[in-house]
Each structure stands twice: as structure tokens, then as C-alpha cells.
């Protein structure tokens, strides 16, 4: 049915629009000077609470020690490290730049799957990776007039975040059994991340009290946590049903919506080099996207992946 064929596109579009807004929310969250670890700690606590609340309405396996390895990998690679990097970089960059860098996720995803021989080498898609790299150079080589002289280093840091997200995509698609409930993965990984981050923030003296949640920064983090919860549900479901390469095309929506949110919320203005970078990146994404035959093969591989977990 056509409805079924379009459903994955609806999921990645919805997730992309929500995630695109989180870059502007991150700028709001960091504006009052809260420590990145405190911001990330509250985010994962609230996200874990979101999925615990969903458990009360729709019963599922909440936490299974047999899957602790999965929780730990996702907590470190997909949550803790990129959260901290983004919160550190957010005050130094615009929401639009943060959104553009996330576009490299599909490029890195395909490159990793190619290196691990999960995907075959296709000239068109390899050209897409090359264009993605050119797009990044268009961000860091020309003088963009950033207020921070180390802006290029911050751009490279958030590109590392994109690489980590790509690793997470491949791990979920290839290392996690399809039988594991998506909500369990999300609750377990955020709970583990909270158990790592919150005590560490308290120990370092950078934590924030409950009352802080009522501040603009706290409300922004709350919105990020709840929005990300919904977005992750849609995104992880897409990975399990349509494969990690297809799901990573969510970066289209993230990039475009992130730039638009930055313009709406902060009246951001970008140089011609940044707009050229966006166009080149989108072209690269179009080339790296798998064709229909590749998607079918990828779906079949994903359905059989992780049977030993």
C-alpha cells in the first residue's frame, strides 16, 4: 500500500523537524552559562522519565540486564559524548551551522557500512561522500566572520558528533536484535547515561537544582528532552524497519529545519559560502541515498541482523 511506503518518510520528516528545533533550543539552554554536563545530565534524566511514563501507559520490557551492553554503547556513543560536544559548541556557533554539520551523518553512515562491507561500493554514492566533504570545507575554509576565532575547531567538534551518530546508526541496525523493543533501548540507554552523568555533575559541583528547570535554560532542556524522546522513537523505528542508511536521511529535514528555526528564532543571517555549503551538502545526500534495490537488500539484511544478541 502507498500509505505503508510513505510512512518511513513521514517518520524521518517529523523527527527531522523536531531535531532541527533542538539546535535553537540548545542556544537558549547555554545562554545562561549552565555547565554542559549539567545540561546533558538533566536532558537524559528527563528523557528517561519520559519513557518511564510511556511504560505506565503501554507495558513493555523496561530494562533487561541481558541488554546492558546495548544500553551502555548507546549511552556513551549516541548520548553522552555528542550531548556534551554539542552543548560545549552551541555558544560558539549558530543554530544553522549546527544543523548543517549534522548532514554528514548519512555520509559517515554509508562510509562505515562500506568499510565494514555491509554496503557495496557505488560510484554515485561515493561521489556523494566527496561532495559532503567539500561542503564541510566550504564551512571551515572561507572566512565566515565568526565572532569566535576558534569557530572552525568547534565545527570540527560537532562533525565528530555526526560521526558518533553514524556509529550509533550502524550499531542499532546491525548489532541490536529486531526483537528488542525500541522503547526499552531508549529508556535503558538514557537511564545508563543519567547514572553516569548526574552523579558526575554533582561530584564536580556543576549540577543544577530542580528549581533551575523553571528557568528559560531549564525549559529549553526540558523541550529538548521531550522532543528528542518523540524524535528518537520515530527515528529508531525507522532504523529497525527501513535500515540505518535510509533512516540517516533524516538529516535532510534536520538540516533544512535547523537553518529555518535559526532564522525564525534568532534572525540568523548566513554568508553566501554557507548557503553554497548547504546546497552542496544536499546534493551529496541525494547521491549517497540508496536506490530502491539497495533499500530492499538493506531491509533484508537489517531484518536478519543481531540474531546472536
Give a brief rundown of this model.
76% of the residues lie in helices and 0% in strands. With 309 residues, it is mostly helical.
- Residue stretches low in confidence (pLDDT < 50, at least 5 long) are 292-309
The number of helical segments is 13
User: In total, how many beta strands?
Assistant: 0
Question: What is the N-to-C order of secondary-structure elements (H for helix, E for strand)?
Answer: HHHHHHHHHHHHH
First and last CA, distance: 32 Å
Structural class: mainly alpha
Basic shape: globular
Strand content: under 5%
Task: State the helical fraction.
Answer: over 70%
Biggest pleated sheet: none
- CA radius of gyration is 19 Å
Number of domains: 1
Q: Can you describe what's shown?
A:
The protein is mainly alpha-helical and 309 residues long. The protein has one domain. The protein has 13 helices and no strands. Helix 2 packs antiparallel against helix 8 (182-204), helix 4 packs antiparallel against helix 11 and helix 5 (104-115) packs parallel to helix 12 (272-288). The longest helix is centred in the N-terminal third of the chain and has 29 residues, at 2-30. The chain is globular. The relative contact order is 0.22. Mean pLDDT is 84; it is low at 292-309.
Features:
mainly alpha; 309 residues
SSE blueprint:
Blueprint: H1 2-30, H2 36-57, H3 68-89, H4 95-101, H5 104-115, H6 123-140, H7 151-175, H8 182-204, H9 216-242, H10 244-247, H11 250-266, H12 272-288, H13 292-304
Helix pairs in contact: 1-4, 1-9, 1-11, 2-3, 2-8, 2-9, 3-7, 3-8, 4-11, 5-6, 5-7, 5-12, 6-12, 9-13
